[in-house]
Amino acid sequence: MRKETLWEAKKKQNPGHSAWYIQRFEQMREQGADLHGEARMIDAMVPRGARILDAGAGPGRVGGELARRGHAVVGVDVDPELIDAARKDHPQATWLVGDLTELDLPAAGIREPFDLIVCAGNVMTFLAPGTAGEVLARMRAHLAPEGRVVIGFGAGRGYDFEQFFADAEAAGLSVDLKLSTWDLRPLTPDAGFLVAVLSTALGSGA
């Protein structure tokens, strides 16, 4: 039986949370805020026309920008309200409702693996408790042989950075790069945010 994610629990407590979240970024965009730092980093890591999975896509802020830059983007999120917004604002990408613990895109007819998987916006901290390892293993299963996973989330949100590194290793992923920002500043012991670049661990099998 699927566990309720912390995002779903938050919506239960506050049914208007998703609408607020969507509106928040719309207001930031109208105010001229830079909302594409994550997409710029990801865009620099892959060739034009790369296959990218936006895991925990929300309303499509990152994946939509990557699609605009010419990549083949599939976005998945557990929240139908957020996916509806992504479909409306970024029709050039493919958006699917789904829990990352059950990620199985070949079953949905999307059989090609991905050159890169991006998981931004603190998604890892909104998963159902205890499921991060399964999510990381599912991501790895969707990677092309030379593909990479880029994950960003903040400290103090219930998922310790060292536990994340251990979960990644257990899922067959190696940590290639540890950063504290999406503009490539190195991770420091007191960093309040982590951006990790992962790849398939050598010797872990296909």
From TrEMBL:
Any one GO molecular-function label of the UniProt entry: methyltransferase activity
UniProt-listed SUPFAM superfamilies: S-adenosyl-L-methionine-dependent methyltransferases (SSF53335)
A Pfam family this chain is assigned to: Methyltransf_25
The keyword Translocase appears for this protein: no
Boundaries of every Methyltransferase domain copy: 52-147
Domain of life of the source: Bacteria
GO biological process: methylation
Keywords: Methyltransferase, S-adenosyl-L-methionine, Transferase
Organism the protein comes from: Arthrobacter yangruifuii
Protein name, per record: Methyltransferase domain-containing protein
InterPro entries per UniProt: Methyltransf_25, SAM-dependent_MTases_sf
